[in-house]
Design a protein that fits this description.
The complex is a heterodimer of chains A (about 425) and B (about 375). Chain A has about 425 residues and is an alpha/beta fold. Chain A has helices at about 15-35, 50-55, 60-70, 75-85, 95-105, 135-145, 165-185, 190-215, 225, 230-235, 245-260, 285-295, 330-335, 345-355, 370-375, 380-390, 410-430, and strands at about 40, 55-60, 125-130, 150-155, 275-280, 300-305, 360-370, 395-400. In chain A, helix 4 crosses helix 5 (about 95-105). Chain A is globular and about 70 Å long. The two termini of chain A are about 30 Å apart. Chain B is an alpha/beta fold. Chain B has 15 helices and eight strands. Chain B has helices spanning about 5-15, 20-30, 45-50, 75-85, 105-115, 135-155, 160-185, 195-205, 210-220, 245-255, 270, 280-290, 305-315, 330-345, 360-375; strands spanning about 35, 50-55, 95-100, 120-125, 235-240, 260-265, 320-325, 350-355. In chain B, helix 10 links the parallel strand 5 (about 235-240) and strand 6 (about 260-265). Classes of the chains: A alpha/beta (about 425), B alpha/beta (about 375). At the A-B interface, helix 6, strand 4, helix 7, helix 15 and helix 16 of A face helix 5, helix 6 and helix 14 of B.
Chain lengths: ~425, ~375
Amino acid sequence: MAEEKPLVKRLKVNEEINAAMKKYIAEGWRAKKEGEKICWTTGGGAPRELLHAMDIWCYLPEVQSAITASDQAIVQYHMLAEGEGYSMDGVCPYARGNIGEIISCRPQGYPLGTRGGIPTPDILLAFKTFCATLIYWWEALKRRFGVPLFVGDTVFYNRPMETRDVMYYADSMRDCVNFLEKHTGKRLDTERLKEAQGLSGKAGELINKILEMNKNVPAPFDELDFMGTALAACWWRGCRKTPWNAVEFFKKALAEVEERVENQIGAIEDERFRLVFDSNPPWYKFNWFGDYLAQRGAIYVTSSFNRWWPGYNGFRYGWCVMGRDWSFEDIGKCNIPHWINAGIEERIRYLSRLVKDYRVDGAIFMDNRGCRILSYAMLDEAAYLERELGIPTLLYEGSMADPRHFDEEMVKVQLDTFLEILEKKKKNKRGS
Amino acid sequence: MTQAVEILKSMKRLVETKHDQTRDFKKQTGRKIIGYTCPYVPIEIISAAGALPVWVLGNTGTVIEAGGYIQGYFCRYMRNLFDQGLQGVYDYLDGIVVPRVCDAMQSFYEHWVRYIATPYKWFLQHPFVTSASSALNYWTTELTAFRESLEEYTGSPISNDDLRSAINRYNTNRSLLRQLHDLQRSNKVPISGTELLYVLVSGLIMPIEEHNKLLQELLQGLPVRRDAPKGKHRLMIIRGCLAEDAIPWLQEIERLGGIIVTDVTCSGTEHYSKDVLIEGDLLSAIALRYLRGVRCPEYSPMEPLFEHVLRTAKDYRVQGAIFLLEKYCDPYCLAYPDLRRALEEQRIPSLLIETGEIEMPLGQIRTRTQAFFEMIGG
């Protein structure tokens, strides 16, 4: 019986995140009490390294919403936001979760979340590198809290990068520095920024090394399981303090994965189907998904998601690949072509590369009702993989943070059928 | 029948037969037809290049083919535009120009260029932060590149005289539309919202000089119109793009006793509120107007939009606002709760009507609108 097979062997390093997060929130309260400025910033695209270099405590509502969803607690907050008029269909579930948490703070005065209270913002910072929704969301936060907002811009990457695009991004960064200095009273020490950038680059290298390990057969870790480390990559990259030092964290993760490779330990038993995943994961079904596949001999060996932070060979994304020597223009050159900011052609090129390099048997997409920017090219990507690379694909309907858009029984049927197709294809290949 | 009524009827006919009209125009003049999707596209540059800018507009058709490319949880309006493209409704277009506005518009452009064979395509990287220090400079260089690409495509340079002349034509049009809009302030409103929609839309698809002539004649005729609409409740419509797909809803709202006196929509007041000020470098003047002269919820900062909504509501003495919002419109869905609250603080009640793939039956709109009118009284 498929149900009796062992589940995914999860990475132990993930267990450290909860304790570190608790300490991080406590550090936020210390900063608030001592009169330091608290910044709420976008997980996507905003210059975390800059905030760490200036010792500005930052909070990432998107990541918090992912955590709240994985704690199975987000729907109550969604309903509070929907009660104020934020549409279930029209508004991102991360945004609804965050706004609902803020509404729930009455009368405490601060959002509770599921991991203790969060200090309210004194400044807001958003970058238009990922979706436009982030900007609308941060504008709503500005109206709610009445605090200053800075919005940085990144032009859409659907044509070769022009010099003016890069300069425009760099100007945004300089404006961002001026904004932070003005509203926090702190001066940016460029040496500290170089250090943060160096740490960020180092963390990126480590993540890349880890992700490369999954080219091994059997794959040493479940790519979905590794998505749990996104908090460290997204929030703490560039931070030098323990336990939020992303370099220290990913060194431990690498050691754990290397040990598995040396001992030929796979993340699942009897690996038969190697899969690529595209979209945000359904956080409320985080462990369920990997286990359901593991019991049927399937595993995600690569994904677009885990490459958001470090990029990939030939696809220089994000901040993590910069290292110490950089300029704001260089940072622009890395952020403009980011996967989420890219046109259909670039997304197809990138996904095809992952499929080939990781010897993938099938591709699974979450047709994500909660995130239009992630989903807009999915039908084109799936059609290309099927037609040009002969890779079977499955699109199941869901949402990264609203379980009301996920039908477990329906998804089970779809997964079973999909795996049967892969099995049949394998048999045909052996027979020919 | 008065002259004004005749002109309104001719504008309605123009809208209803717009594709045939444009095909004939192209055949007769040999001019290029360039489609665009949003009030952030500087049509003066297209017109100065000798082409006819035509706003690609939503209709009441069901989305069929587009569902195979763009999922159902994307803005129905954009899916409908793409669907029309796939079905060849806009097969006479020589080009398509789309600005960076919302994620749905980006998706629309990406799909159009991939699946519809339109010879000229251009994506305008409009700044997302209209107040940013370098936004105007960047946008001006972006428009310079746009101008050059059009010159290359049409094979003829765009002179400053061409630009100045195009600016004047469109400024005249905006000025005439503002005069028409001003008439709606009076107690005796001369034109219904549905009629106004035909006036606006006809201007988005025909040569602007001809539209200007019609508008001048209409403005002369309207003050003496005897069969003016008799709606009781003065209303403001808030929506992204107000196009033909909205006609059944507007007709129903006005049939029940409402009179739409103003709007905050892309194809309405946002389209004609501000002129291009002819000062200094013409391209910079155009850039400034299209950077800060249009106020939609797509860009940061949003205060100008909120101020515009409240000021318009006050100036036109509206008794209620109707949000006619696309179900999956990210920018409006996130702005709506605060916009509604801001209106409430000014004692202006509002009604939300969500429009989506499966259109709300008119019966539901009727019931809710009737209840809304009872609430606002008068």
